[in-house]
Write a structure and sequence with these properties.
single chain; mainly alpha; two-stranded parallel sheet; globular
Length: 67
């Protein structure tokens, strides 16, 4: 099962917190997808890289890797 495999390899879940949700309001209005904006806000708040294939997301100045 994928989930068990992730846990066996030190995968950690990142819960959505109120600070992540509030950080969405600080983002420029470049991308309209609310879930993508949440992922970006999480990456910024947690100082982690967001992996994405959405080239529109790369317009943000954030820790991101476009794959």
């Amino acid at each position: 099962m994928l989930y068990n495999g992730l846990l066996d390899n030190a995968y950690e879940e990142l819960p959505i917190t109120s600070s992540h949700v509030l950080a969405i309001g600080t983002l420029p209005d470049i991308h309209k997808d609310p879930f993508d904006r949440l992922l970006l806000a999480q990456a910024i708040s947690e100082k982690i890289h967001l992996l994405t294939s959405d080239t529109q997301m790369t317009q943000y100045t954030a820790p991101m890797i476009c794959v």
